[in-house]
Design a protein that fits this description.
globular; single chain; magnesium ion binding; Endonuclease V; 9 strands; alpha+beta; DNA damage; DNA repair; DNA-binding; archaeoglobus fulgidus dsm 4304 fold; 228 residues
Length: 228
Amino acid sequence: MNYDTLTITEATKIQNQLREEIRIRERNFPIDIIAGADISFNKFSTTVYAGIVLLRFPSLLPVAYSLVKKEVLFPYVPGYLAFREVPALLGAWEQLAVKPDLLVVDGHGIAHPRRMGIAAHFGVLAQVPAIGCAKKVLCGGYEEPGLQQGSESPLIYKDEVVGVALRTKNAVKPVYVSPGHKMDVPGAVEVMKQCLGRYRIPEPTRLAHNTVNLFRTGELSEGYHEVG
DNA sequence: GCGACAG
DNA sequence: ATCTTGTCGC
């Protein structure tokens, strides 16, 4: 798959088309393996380092990870992040010997102007339940959640609850959680609350971020690796 | 027209 | 996103 030559107009059409495939509904499956996905790159470089980390649930202990390096020309444009990151992530996905029951992607799910954030986009293409966990808001508004860890406040866009601002640690900036595919807002939040550890960023995405950075700096190699 | 704007 | 030193607070 290659999105590099798309214009924004064409990318928008793809989003509007893929949106028909999104299924926002109550979770109806158990979670034994959860995963985190992220990419890393050097500023001004077209090389991206993508990775997916598998962790046992609910222990959150890492069990394996898949790393892929790829050239990407599509630029970062707010609202079109998926066109830049999804192709590389799909490469990492195909390399997995075991697929997770659920994937957490660094970015938004349906908390997106066209309800097609990267988590929704990837979830539909890979046909996997997905949740978006972003560090910043793309669209919508919310009231500041309580300062206590676990406090949440609905993220609203055009009168619709598209996600929540979730306080992952006491008195620390919240993260923004939204379902991507085969999940709903309450379900996505419920799962993410079970992914909280010692840091602001929930474990799946935090481990994925650390892993792709080690990959980019040459401390880990491309491929599928089991941990331990 | 103006401001906002995932990674 | 990445780079990067110091500073504030639990």
